[in-house]
Amino acid sequence: MALFELDGVTVAGDGRPRLRDVTLALPDTGVTVLQGPSGSGKSTLLRLLNRLEAPDEGTVRYRGEDLAQRDVLAHRREVGMVFQAPVVFPGTVADNLAVARPEEPPEELLERVGLPASFLERDASTLSGGEAQRACLARALATRPHVLLMDEPTSALDPAAAEVIERLARELAGGGVPVVLVTHDDAQARRVGDRIVRVEDGRVAA
Amino acid sequence: MSGDVSWWGLAASLLLVGVAIAISLRERLRLERDMLVAVARSLAQLLLVGAALGLIVDEGTWIGWSFVWVAGMVTFAAVTVARRAPALPAVLPIAATAIGSSAALGLGLLFVLQVFPVEGRTVVPLAGMVVGNALSATVVTVRRTVDAFAERRADLEARLALGLPSTEAARPTVRNVLRLAIAPDVERIKALGIVVLPGAMTGLILAGVDPLDAVRVQLALMYVILGAVATSTTITALLGTRRLFTPDHRLVVLRRSAADEG
After folding, report:
1. What architecture does CATH give domain B63-260?
2. Residues belonging to chain B with any Cβ–Cβ distance to chain A shorter than 8 Å
3. How many domains does chain A have?
4. CA angle, B230 as apex, B229 and B235 as ends, to 5°?
5. Which residues of chain B register pLDDT less than 50?
6. What CATH number does residue A98 fall under?
Protein backbone atom coordinates (compact mmCIF):
# COMPACT_ATOMS: atom_id res chain seq x y z
CA MET A 1 0.00 0.00 0.00
CA ALA A 2 1.19 3.51 -0.77
CA LEU A 3 2.42 5.61 2.12
CA PHE A 4 0.63 8.74 0.92
CA GLU A 5 -1.86 9.16 -1.88
CA LEU A 6 -3.02 12.49 -3.24
CA ASP A 7 -6.16 12.42 -5.31
CA GLY A 8 -7.09 15.50 -7.35
CA VAL A 9 -5.57 17.84 -4.78
CA THR A 10 -5.80 21.58 -5.30
CA VAL A 11 -4.53 24.19 -2.83
CA ALA A 12 -5.63 27.76 -3.49
CA GLY A 13 -3.18 30.63 -3.17
CA ASP A 14 -3.10 34.39 -3.47
CA GLY A 15 -4.13 34.70 -7.10
CA ARG A 16 -3.04 31.43 -8.69
CA PRO A 17 -3.35 28.07 -6.94
CA ARG A 18 -0.23 26.69 -5.25
CA LEU A 19 -1.14 23.15 -6.27
CA ARG A 20 -3.60 22.18 -8.96
CA ASP A 21 -5.24 18.83 -9.42
CA VAL A 22 -2.31 16.76 -8.15
CA THR A 23 -2.72 13.00 -8.15
CA LEU A 24 0.24 11.10 -6.79
CA ALA A 25 1.25 8.07 -4.74
CA LEU A 26 4.38 8.00 -2.55
CA PRO A 27 5.98 4.62 -1.75
CA ASP A 28 6.46 3.51 1.86
CA THR A 29 10.17 2.77 1.62
CA GLY A 30 13.35 4.71 0.96
CA VAL A 31 13.84 8.40 0.30
CA THR A 32 11.33 10.09 -2.00
CA VAL A 33 12.49 13.49 -3.20
CA LEU A 34 10.06 16.24 -4.21
CA GLN A 35 12.20 18.40 -6.47
CA GLY A 36 11.41 21.65 -8.23
CA PRO A 37 12.19 25.36 -8.44
CA SER A 38 11.20 27.71 -5.63
CA GLY A 39 7.52 28.60 -5.72
CA SER A 40 6.67 25.39 -7.56
CA GLY A 41 4.45 24.10 -4.77
CA LYS A 42 6.72 21.32 -3.48
CA SER A 43 6.73 22.62 0.10
CA THR A 44 2.95 23.00 0.01
CA LEU A 45 2.76 19.38 -1.13
CA LEU A 46 4.96 18.29 1.78
CA ARG A 47 2.94 20.32 4.30
CA LEU A 48 -0.23 18.56 3.17
CA LEU A 49 1.27 15.30 4.39
CA ASN A 50 1.23 16.27 8.09
CA ARG A 51 -1.74 18.59 7.65
CA LEU A 52 0.01 21.87 8.31
CA GLU A 53 -2.00 22.63 5.16
CA ALA A 54 -5.34 21.22 4.09
CA PRO A 55 -6.41 20.74 0.48
CA ASP A 56 -9.13 23.00 -0.92
CA GLU A 57 -10.14 20.20 -3.25
CA GLY A 58 -9.31 16.52 -3.40
CA THR A 59 -8.14 14.13 -0.69
CA VAL A 60 -4.85 13.18 0.92
CA ARG A 61 -4.65 9.63 2.27
CA TYR A 62 -2.12 8.12 4.66
CA ARG A 63 -1.84 4.33 4.40
CA GLY A 64 -5.26 4.32 2.79
CA GLU A 65 -6.93 6.56 5.39
CA ASP A 66 -8.30 10.02 4.55
CA LEU A 67 -6.28 12.56 6.53
CA ALA A 68 -9.38 14.68 7.08
CA GLN A 69 -10.78 11.78 9.14
CA ARG A 70 -7.63 11.10 11.17
CA ASP A 71 -6.80 12.55 14.59
CA VAL A 72 -4.45 15.28 13.40
CA LEU A 73 -2.36 15.41 16.60
CA ALA A 74 -1.72 11.68 16.59
CA HIS A 75 -0.99 11.85 12.87
CA ARG A 76 1.65 14.53 13.36
CA ARG A 77 3.38 12.48 16.03
CA GLU A 78 3.47 9.63 13.54
CA VAL A 79 4.75 11.83 10.69
CA GLY A 80 7.74 13.85 11.90
CA MET A 81 8.92 17.01 10.19
CA VAL A 82 12.17 18.95 9.86
CA PHE A 83 12.00 22.49 8.48
CA GLN A 84 14.13 24.54 6.15
CA ALA A 85 15.78 26.76 8.73
CA PRO A 86 16.41 24.90 11.99
CA VAL A 87 13.74 26.08 14.45
CA VAL A 88 15.15 25.74 17.95
CA PHE A 89 12.99 26.67 20.92
CA PRO A 90 14.35 28.79 23.79
CA GLY A 91 16.29 26.80 26.39
CA THR A 92 18.71 23.91 26.28
CA VAL A 93 18.80 21.03 23.80
CA ALA A 94 17.23 18.89 26.54
CA ASP A 95 14.39 21.46 26.84
CA ASN A 96 13.91 21.25 23.08
CA LEU A 97 13.61 17.49 23.15
CA ALA A 98 11.23 17.66 26.13
CA VAL A 99 8.72 19.74 24.12
CA ALA A 100 8.19 16.68 21.92
CA ARG A 101 7.36 14.52 24.99
CA PRO A 102 10.05 12.00 23.93
CA GLU A 103 9.35 8.30 23.93
CA GLU A 104 12.99 7.36 24.37
CA PRO A 105 15.89 8.68 26.49
CA PRO A 106 17.24 12.04 25.21
CA GLU A 107 20.81 10.67 25.10
CA GLU A 108 19.76 8.02 22.59
CA LEU A 109 17.96 10.59 20.45
CA LEU A 110 21.13 12.67 20.23
CA GLU A 111 23.17 9.57 19.47
CA ARG A 112 20.93 8.81 16.49
CA VAL A 113 21.84 12.17 14.96
CA GLY A 114 25.52 11.88 15.90
CA LEU A 115 25.60 14.41 18.72
CA PRO A 116 27.27 13.62 22.08
CA ALA A 117 25.13 13.52 25.24
CA SER A 118 27.02 16.58 26.52
CA PHE A 119 24.93 18.62 24.05
CA LEU A 120 21.84 18.13 26.22
CA GLU A 121 22.91 20.96 28.51
CA ARG A 122 23.91 23.31 25.68
CA ASP A 123 21.83 26.44 25.15
CA ALA A 124 20.11 25.64 21.86
CA SER A 125 20.54 29.20 20.60
CA THR A 126 24.34 28.80 20.66
CA LEU A 127 24.42 25.79 18.31
CA SER A 128 25.87 26.09 14.81
CA GLY A 129 23.45 25.71 11.89
CA GLY A 130 24.36 22.07 11.34
CA GLU A 131 24.20 21.21 15.04
CA ALA A 132 20.86 22.98 15.37
CA GLN A 133 19.40 21.09 12.42
CA ARG A 134 20.62 17.81 13.93
CA ALA A 135 19.02 18.76 17.27
CA CYS A 136 15.78 19.48 15.37
CA LEU A 137 16.05 16.10 13.68
CA ALA A 138 16.53 14.45 17.10
CA ARG A 139 13.46 16.36 18.33
CA ALA A 140 11.44 15.15 15.34
CA LEU A 141 12.55 11.57 16.06
CA ALA A 142 11.48 11.91 19.70
CA THR A 143 7.87 11.02 18.87
CA ARG A 144 9.08 7.77 17.17
CA PRO A 145 7.67 8.81 13.80
CA HIS A 146 6.86 6.18 11.18
CA VAL A 147 7.64 8.70 8.43
CA LEU A 148 9.91 11.73 8.29
CA LEU A 149 9.22 14.84 6.20
CA MET A 150 12.17 17.13 5.44
CA ASP A 151 11.53 20.56 3.91
CA GLU A 152 14.78 21.78 2.26
CA PRO A 153 16.62 20.62 5.39
CA THR A 154 20.09 21.61 4.15
CA SER A 155 19.46 24.89 2.33
CA ALA A 156 20.60 26.94 5.35
CA LEU A 157 23.69 24.76 6.00
CA ASP A 158 27.28 24.63 4.76
CA PRO A 159 28.26 21.65 2.54
CA ALA A 160 29.82 19.60 5.34
CA ALA A 161 26.77 19.98 7.59
CA ALA A 162 24.49 19.30 4.61
CA GLU A 163 26.32 16.04 3.95
CA VAL A 164 25.66 14.88 7.53
CA ILE A 165 21.92 15.56 7.18
CA GLU A 166 21.81 13.75 3.82
CA ARG A 167 23.57 10.75 5.35
CA LEU A 168 21.14 10.72 8.30
CA ALA A 169 18.19 10.81 5.90
CA ARG A 170 19.61 7.80 4.04
CA GLU A 171 20.25 5.96 7.34
CA LEU A 172 16.72 6.57 8.59
CA ALA A 173 15.21 5.34 5.33
CA GLY A 174 17.53 2.31 5.48
CA GLY A 175 16.33 1.68 9.03
CA GLY A 176 12.68 1.48 7.96
CA VAL A 177 11.56 5.11 8.39
CA PRO A 178 10.60 6.32 4.92
CA VAL A 179 11.67 9.90 4.21
CA VAL A 180 9.99 12.48 1.98
CA LEU A 181 12.50 15.23 1.26
CA VAL A 182 11.92 18.53 -0.55
CA THR A 183 14.80 20.18 -2.39
CA HIS A 184 15.36 22.58 -5.26
CA ASP A 185 18.84 21.10 -5.72
CA ASP A 186 19.13 18.68 -8.64
CA ALA A 187 22.39 17.15 -7.47
CA GLN A 188 21.06 16.58 -3.95
CA ALA A 189 17.92 14.97 -5.36
CA ARG A 190 20.07 12.49 -7.26
CA ARG A 191 22.38 11.85 -4.28
CA VAL A 192 19.68 11.04 -1.71
CA GLY A 193 16.57 10.09 -3.66
CA ASP A 194 15.46 6.54 -4.37
CA ARG A 195 12.68 8.16 -6.33
CA ILE A 196 12.37 11.72 -7.60
CA VAL A 197 9.04 13.50 -8.12
CA ARG A 198 9.34 16.73 -10.08
CA VAL A 199 7.00 19.55 -9.11
CA GLU A 200 6.57 22.49 -11.44
CA ASP A 201 4.09 25.33 -11.38
CA GLY A 202 1.78 23.55 -8.95
CA ARG A 203 1.70 20.33 -10.93
CA VAL A 204 3.51 17.03 -10.72
CA ALA A 205 5.49 16.39 -13.86
CA ALA A 206 5.18 12.90 -15.31
CA MET B 1 -16.07 73.62 45.47
CA SER B 2 -12.90 75.60 45.90
CA GLY B 3 -11.17 74.06 42.88
CA ASP B 4 -13.77 75.17 40.38
CA VAL B 5 -12.47 76.45 37.09
CA SER B 6 -14.74 79.25 35.98
CA TRP B 7 -15.81 79.59 32.35
CA TRP B 8 -13.41 82.49 32.17
CA GLY B 9 -10.64 80.19 33.51
CA LEU B 10 -11.42 77.58 30.87
CA ALA B 11 -11.20 80.23 28.15
CA ALA B 12 -7.86 81.39 29.59
CA SER B 13 -6.46 77.86 29.38
CA LEU B 14 -7.16 77.99 25.65
CA LEU B 15 -4.41 80.61 25.44
CA LEU B 16 -1.90 77.77 25.77
CA VAL B 17 -3.51 76.02 22.81
CA GLY B 18 -2.87 79.30 21.00
CA VAL B 19 0.83 78.91 21.86
CA ALA B 20 0.83 75.37 20.45
CA ILE B 21 -0.86 76.57 17.27
CA ALA B 22 1.65 79.39 16.94
CA ILE B 23 4.49 76.86 17.21
CA SER B 24 2.85 74.64 14.64
CA LEU B 25 2.47 77.55 12.21
CA ARG B 26 5.98 78.84 12.78
CA GLU B 27 7.62 75.41 12.38
CA ARG B 28 5.22 74.40 9.60
CA LEU B 29 4.14 71.27 11.48
CA ARG B 30 0.74 71.48 9.76
CA LEU B 31 -0.85 70.35 13.01
CA GLU B 32 -2.87 73.52 13.59
CA ARG B 33 -6.01 72.19 11.90
CA ASP B 34 -5.83 68.97 13.92
CA MET B 35 -5.28 70.97 17.09
CA LEU B 36 -8.32 73.13 16.48
CA VAL B 37 -10.43 70.07 15.70
CA ALA B 38 -9.14 68.32 18.82
CA VAL B 39 -9.90 71.31 21.02
CA ALA B 40 -13.36 71.78 19.52
CA ARG B 41 -14.17 68.08 19.85
CA SER B 42 -12.90 67.85 23.41
CA LEU B 43 -14.97 70.90 24.37
CA ALA B 44 -18.13 69.59 22.76
CA GLN B 45 -17.75 65.96 23.88
CA LEU B 46 -16.79 66.64 27.47
CA LEU B 47 -19.37 69.42 27.99
CA LEU B 48 -22.00 67.04 26.64
CA VAL B 49 -20.77 64.25 28.91
CA GLY B 50 -20.66 66.68 31.80
CA ALA B 51 -24.27 67.69 31.21
CA ALA B 52 -25.38 64.07 30.87
CA LEU B 53 -23.41 63.10 33.98
CA GLY B 54 -25.21 65.91 35.76
CA LEU B 55 -28.48 64.10 35.06
CA ILE B 56 -27.07 60.72 36.12
CA VAL B 57 -25.50 62.05 39.31
CA ASP B 58 -28.75 63.68 40.37
CA GLU B 59 -30.06 61.84 43.40
CA GLY B 60 -33.50 61.50 41.91
CA THR B 61 -32.19 59.55 38.92
CA TRP B 62 -32.60 55.75 38.84
CA ILE B 63 -29.17 54.08 39.40
CA GLY B 64 -29.89 51.68 36.52
CA TRP B 65 -29.23 54.49 34.04
CA SER B 66 -25.62 54.54 35.26
CA PHE B 67 -25.22 50.92 34.30
CA VAL B 68 -26.91 51.50 30.95
CA TRP B 69 -24.27 54.17 30.40
CA VAL B 70 -21.52 51.71 31.38
CA ALA B 71 -22.86 49.16 28.88
CA GLY B 72 -22.73 51.88 26.25
CA MET B 73 -19.11 52.62 27.15
CA VAL B 74 -18.14 48.97 26.86
CA THR B 75 -19.84 48.72 23.46
CA PHE B 76 -18.17 51.88 22.21
CA ALA B 77 -14.79 50.64 23.49
CA ALA B 78 -15.21 47.30 21.72
CA VAL B 79 -16.11 49.04 18.46
CA THR B 80 -13.04 51.26 18.87
CA VAL B 81 -10.80 48.21 19.33
CA ALA B 82 -12.32 46.60 16.23
CA ARG B 83 -11.67 49.77 14.22
CA ARG B 84 -8.09 50.23 15.42
CA ALA B 85 -7.00 46.59 15.24
CA PRO B 86 -9.10 44.96 12.51
CA ALA B 87 -6.64 42.19 11.56
CA LEU B 88 -7.90 39.68 14.11
CA PRO B 89 -10.90 37.61 13.05
CA ALA B 90 -13.99 38.18 15.25
CA VAL B 91 -12.22 41.02 17.06
CA LEU B 92 -15.49 42.78 18.01
CA PRO B 93 -17.04 40.05 20.18
CA ILE B 94 -13.60 39.26 21.63
CA ALA B 95 -13.02 42.90 22.62
CA ALA B 96 -16.54 43.20 24.01
CA THR B 97 -16.06 40.09 26.13
CA ALA B 98 -12.63 41.18 27.36
CA ILE B 99 -13.54 44.77 28.19
CA GLY B 100 -16.96 43.82 29.58
CA SER B 101 -15.40 41.23 31.89
CA SER B 102 -12.73 43.60 33.14
CA ALA B 103 -15.34 46.31 33.79
CA ALA B 104 -17.55 43.83 35.64
CA LEU B 105 -14.62 42.54 37.68
CA GLY B 106 -13.20 46.01 38.42
CA LEU B 107 -16.49 47.63 39.37
CA GLY B 108 -17.64 44.49 41.15
CA LEU B 109 -14.59 44.51 43.40
CA LEU B 110 -14.78 48.23 44.11
CA PHE B 111 -18.43 48.00 45.06
CA VAL B 112 -18.52 44.61 46.81
CA LEU B 113 -15.54 45.54 48.96
CA GLN B 114 -17.25 48.90 49.50
CA VAL B 115 -14.25 50.92 48.39
CA PHE B 116 -16.81 53.24 46.85
CA PRO B 117 -20.56 53.39 47.43
CA VAL B 118 -22.80 52.44 44.50
CA GLU B 119 -24.09 55.87 43.54
CA GLY B 120 -24.73 57.83 40.41
CA ARG B 121 -21.66 59.86 41.37
CA THR B 122 -19.32 56.81 41.36
CA VAL B 123 -20.47 54.23 38.81
CA VAL B 124 -19.86 56.03 35.53
CA PRO B 125 -16.56 57.77 36.41
CA LEU B 126 -15.07 54.55 37.83
CA ALA B 127 -16.23 52.53 34.85
CA GLY B 128 -14.68 55.19 32.62
CA MET B 129 -11.27 54.70 34.24
CA VAL B 130 -11.45 50.92 34.02
CA VAL B 131 -12.89 50.75 30.50
CA GLY B 132 -10.51 53.40 29.16
CA ASN B 133 -7.46 51.51 30.40
CA ALA B 134 -8.84 48.15 29.29
CA LEU B 135 -9.48 49.68 25.86
CA SER B 136 -5.87 50.70 25.22
CA ALA B 137 -4.53 47.44 26.65
CA THR B 138 -6.89 45.45 24.43
CA VAL B 139 -5.82 47.31 21.29
CA VAL B 140 -2.16 46.65 22.13
CA THR B 141 -2.87 42.99 22.85
CA VAL B 142 -4.78 42.40 19.62
CA ARG B 143 -2.06 44.02 17.51
CA ARG B 144 0.76 42.26 19.36
CA THR B 145 -0.99 38.89 19.09
CA VAL B 146 -1.46 39.23 15.34
CA ASP B 147 2.13 40.44 14.88
CA ALA B 148 3.54 37.71 17.10
CA PHE B 149 1.74 35.04 15.11
CA ALA B 150 3.27 36.40 11.90
CA GLU B 151 6.76 36.75 13.38
CA ARG B 152 6.78 33.44 15.20
CA ARG B 153 5.15 31.38 12.49
CA ALA B 154 8.15 29.02 12.27
CA ASP B 155 8.17 28.42 16.04
CA LEU B 156 4.42 27.81 16.11
CA GLU B 157 4.48 25.39 13.18
CA ALA B 158 7.48 23.51 14.59
CA ARG B 159 5.46 22.92 17.76
CA LEU B 160 2.33 21.92 15.83
CA ALA B 161 4.44 19.52 13.76
CA LEU B 162 5.40 17.73 16.99
CA GLY B 163 1.71 16.99 17.55
CA LEU B 164 1.14 19.71 20.14
CA PRO B 165 -2.44 21.01 20.30
CA SER B 166 -2.78 24.60 19.11
CA THR B 167 -3.33 26.07 22.59
CA GLU B 168 -0.13 24.45 23.80
CA ALA B 169 1.83 25.41 20.70
CA ALA B 170 0.77 29.02 21.23
CA ARG B 171 1.56 29.17 24.93
CA PRO B 172 5.10 30.65 24.74
CA THR B 173 3.91 33.19 22.16
CA VAL B 174 0.89 34.19 24.25
CA ARG B 175 3.06 34.47 27.34
CA ASN B 176 5.31 36.93 25.48
CA VAL B 177 2.37 38.99 24.30
CA LEU B 178 0.84 39.20 27.77
CA ARG B 179 4.11 40.18 29.36
CA LEU B 180 4.58 42.98 26.84
CA ALA B 181 0.99 44.17 27.20
CA ILE B 182 0.91 44.27 31.01
CA ALA B 183 4.48 45.49 31.66
CA PRO B 184 3.79 49.18 30.80
CA ASP B 185 1.12 49.39 33.51
CA VAL B 186 3.44 47.80 36.05
CA GLU B 187 6.14 50.30 35.10
CA ARG B 188 3.67 53.15 35.36
CA ILE B 189 2.67 52.10 38.85
CA LYS B 190 6.36 51.97 39.87
CA ALA B 191 6.88 55.53 38.63
CA LEU B 192 3.77 56.84 40.37
CA GLY B 193 4.36 59.93 42.44
CA ILE B 194 7.93 60.36 41.24
CA VAL B 195 7.34 61.16 37.59
CA VAL B 196 3.60 60.92 37.21
CA LEU B 197 1.01 62.60 39.39
CA PRO B 198 -1.99 60.61 38.27
CA GLY B 199 -5.12 62.23 36.94
CA ALA B 200 -7.74 61.27 39.50
CA MET B 201 -5.53 62.36 42.37
CA THR B 202 -4.57 65.60 40.70
CA GLY B 203 -8.21 66.29 40.00
CA LEU B 204 -9.24 65.62 43.58
CA ILE B 205 -6.48 67.80 45.01
CA LEU B 206 -7.38 70.60 42.61
CA ALA B 207 -10.98 70.24 43.72
CA GLY B 208 -9.87 70.79 47.34
CA VAL B 209 -9.73 67.25 48.73
CA ASP B 210 -7.08 66.46 51.33
CA PRO B 211 -4.01 65.05 49.48
CA LEU B 212 -3.83 61.85 51.55
CA ASP B 213 -7.51 61.15 50.88
CA ALA B 214 -6.85 61.78 47.21
CA VAL B 215 -3.88 59.39 47.30
CA ARG B 216 -5.99 56.59 48.81
CA VAL B 217 -8.60 57.00 46.08
CA GLN B 218 -5.92 57.02 43.42
CA LEU B 219 -4.11 53.94 44.73
CA ALA B 220 -7.29 51.91 44.99
CA LEU B 221 -8.08 52.92 41.42
CA MET B 222 -4.61 52.06 40.12
CA TYR B 223 -4.67 48.59 41.63
CA VAL B 224 -8.11 47.89 40.26
CA ILE B 225 -7.02 49.18 36.87
CA LEU B 226 -3.98 46.88 36.91
CA GLY B 227 -6.27 43.95 37.59
CA ALA B 228 -8.69 45.09 34.89
CA VAL B 229 -5.88 45.45 32.35
CA ALA B 230 -4.54 42.00 33.19
CA THR B 231 -8.05 40.56 32.82
CA SER B 232 -8.80 42.17 29.47
CA THR B 233 -5.37 41.36 27.98
CA THR B 234 -5.55 37.73 29.09
CA ILE B 235 -9.08 37.22 27.78
CA THR B 236 -8.18 38.97 24.52
CA ALA B 237 -5.03 36.93 23.97
CA LEU B 238 -6.67 33.60 24.82
CA LEU B 239 -9.82 34.16 22.75
CA GLY B 240 -7.83 35.81 19.95
CA THR B 241 -5.37 32.94 19.78
CA ARG B 242 -8.20 30.49 19.20
CA ARG B 243 -9.21 32.50 16.13
CA LEU B 244 -5.72 32.22 14.69
CA PHE B 245 -5.88 28.43 14.45
CA THR B 246 -8.28 26.21 12.54
CA PRO B 247 -10.17 23.55 14.52
CA ASP B 248 -7.74 20.97 13.11
CA HIS B 249 -4.71 22.78 14.61
CA ARG B 250 -3.41 24.64 11.57
CA LEU B 251 -2.43 28.30 11.49
CA VAL B 252 -4.99 30.62 9.93
CA VAL B 253 -3.49 32.63 7.10
CA LEU B 254 -4.20 36.33 7.71
CA ARG B 255 -4.24 38.82 4.91
CA ARG B 256 -1.13 40.92 5.54
CA SER B 257 -2.83 44.05 4.23
CA ALA B 258 -5.32 43.83 7.08
CA ALA B 259 -2.57 43.17 9.62
CA ASP B 260 -0.67 46.25 8.43
CA GLU B 261 -3.52 48.64 9.05
CA GLY B 262 -3.82 50.90 12.03
Report:
1. Up-down Bundle (1.20)
2. 154-155, 157-165, 172, 246, 248-251
3. 1
4. 100
5. 1-2, 257-262
6. 3.40.50.300
